[in-house]
Amino acid sequence: MPHINAAAALQISMLLFALPAQYLISQWYGTDSAERIQITERLIIASWSISTRSYLSLDAWADGLKLWLSKTRTCLYVELLILHFRNWYYGENKTKSGANEEKPHSYLAESAHVHSPKPEYIKFRVGQVIIHRRFGYSGVIVGWDVKANTPKEQLQPRYPPVKQDLKDTPHYRILINKANGFGKSTAYVSEEEITVIMGLEVVYHPDMETYFSGYDGSKYIMQPWLKKLYPHD
C-alpha cells in the first residue's frame, strides 16, 4: 500500500469533493446549461488527471510499496522474534504447571485453592479437636476435602469393598496429638471415622504454630494464611 503523505491526502480530498464543488460552482457562477457543462468537464478531467498520475500509475504504487517495506521490515522481524519467545515461554510454563499438579502436596487436603463456598454437608471445621472413633487418638483438623483426594493407586486399597462409598464423603487432614503415643504424626480420614470433642485444649504436635495462633475455648485459631484457604471455618 502506498505511503499516504500530505500531497496524497490532498488529492483524495479533491476527488471526494469534486462533485459537490461542481454543483456549488454551477449554482453560483453558471447561468446557463452550456457553462455548467464546461465547468463539469473541467473538474472531471482535472480529477482524472490527478488520479492517473498518483493511483493508476504502476510506478507510483511500486515506489509506495518500497517505502512501506523499508519502514516495516525491521518491525516485522522484531515482532516475529517476540512471538517466538512468547510461544516458547508460555508453552514451557504450561508444561511445568501441568507437572506441578501431579505433586503429592495437592492431595490429602493440602491443596492451596480457596475452599469457598463451603458445602453444608461438611460437618466439621478447621481448628476443631477430634478423636478417632476406632483408634482412639486425638488431634486437630487442619484441612478438608469434599471427598477423598488421594493418588489413584492409593484410593482403591484404602477402603474395604463394603466401604467403597466412603470415597465420596468428606475427608479431613488431622495433626495427631503426640501425647497419645500413636505411631503416625498425621492422618487423612473420612468424616464418619471421627467425632469432635470439647474441652481438650492442648494438642502436642511440632507443626501446631505453623497452622494456629492460639485457642479460643472451643477450637484452635487459624493462622492468617490458613484462614484465607478456609474462610468459612
Q: Count of helical segments?
A: 7
Structural class: alpha+beta
Helix content: 40-55%
Strand order of the largest sheet: 4-3-2-1-5
Distance between the termini: 65 Å
Radius of gyration: 40 Å
Signal peptide: 1-26
InterPro entries: Clp_protease_adapter_ClpF, Hemimethylated_DNA-bd_dom, Hemimethylated_DNA-bd_sf
Domain Hemimethylated DNA-binding: 121-223
Protein name: FBX21 protein
Provide tags for this entry:
about 230 residues, alpha+beta, 5-stranded antiparallel β-sheet, two-stranded antiparallel ribbon, 7 helices
Would you mind describing this structure in some detail?
This is FBX21 protein. Keywords: Signal. Pfam families: YccV-like. It comes from Calcarius ornatus. One of its GO terms (molecular function) is DNA binding. The chain has 233 residues and is of the alpha+beta class. Among the domains are: 51 residues, no CATH class; 102 residues, no CATH class. Helix content is 44%, strand content 14%. The chain has seven helices and seven strands. The strands form two sheets. It has a five-stranded antiparallel beta sheet, with no helix packed on it. Helix 1 runs antiparallel to helix 3 and helix 2 packs antiparallel against helix 3. The radius of gyration is 40 Å and the shape is elongated.
